Automatic annotation (TrEMBL):
PROSITE patterns for this protein: ABC_TM1 (PS50928)
Keyword Chloroplast: no
Family from the record: Belongs to the binding-protein-dependent transport system permease family.
ABC transmembrane type-1 domain sequence ranges: 92-303
Keywords (A to Z) from UniProt: Cell membrane, Membrane, Transmembrane, Transmembrane helix, Transport
Protein name listed in UniProt: Sugar ABC transporter permease
CDD domains, sorted: TM_PBP2
Lineage: Bacteria, Bacillati, Actinomycetota, Actinomycetes, Micrococcales
Localization in the cell: Cell membrane
Amino acid sequence: MKPDSVSVEERPAGARPSQQPEPRRQPRRLHFSAGLLAPAVVVMAILSVIPFITLIVMSFSRVRLLGGLRLEFAGLDNWARALTDIDLWTSWLLTAIFFVATVGLEMVLGIAIAFSLHKVIRGRSLLLSIILLPMFVAPVIVGLLGRYLTDPTFGLYAHVLQNLGIKEDILGNPTSAFIAVTLMDVWEWTPLVALIALAGFSSVNPSILEAAALDGAGQFKTLRHIVFPAISNVLLVALLIRSMDAVRYFDIITITTNGGPANATKIVPLRLFETAFRFFDLGYAAAIGLMMLIVTILIAQVFVRMLDKKGLTK
């Protein structure tokens, strides 16, 4: 006989059936978690949201500093000025050239270095440590080092070029100065791409490579049809990281050329800094800063959509 049936038979007449125990309520963890997050959200709002709103307001205002901070509504004047400023568009063009040159060279050289390191069996860790050294140097130090090496009086690179018959000041010529600051960024951040690409190479299944070798696939075909499709997601992440950083390039150019000569290296971040803290035209600088933010978001969206198509954002 079942225990339930015994309890029903022994229940006295007129007695109310025993109530089923109510399910235990789940603790309100959501409210507790929200309470824990509240201080962080408030701090984030103070540090991020409020300055961002202030920046938007400034982009529609004339900022007066004499006699205290005052904002005078200027409508779309700053935005119209930014859209029609030839000098600013020249800086955008330099930024685009710099972006393509640095990111392109860093991706090509980084993949080549990673592929070469992947083939090395003995001493790979030592070689990797040496290759990664520039990545740990502060950009300001890289700029000072580049300035020292390209100095026309005692710089090593200037001395080599002079022996080759090229006696121009590297940082004094617009073209060579732009190439020099581009190569300084490539020198510093190519190791990061190499490190990420090396991780991708290491993740390729060796049995697939052995099968391709047994089938007679050459080195080029193996790379094109097996290795690169397998590590494309990793390379896309490396491309995203470097693209976000290249748009904000500032330190090395400031230390070496400060935008010169003849504005040849004055990309948008330097023009923004000059507008805000040299000419104190803060309203116009706010509009330039928001334009940079919009461009950065658009670039990020392109890469996020590419990652989303590959199912890497879920």
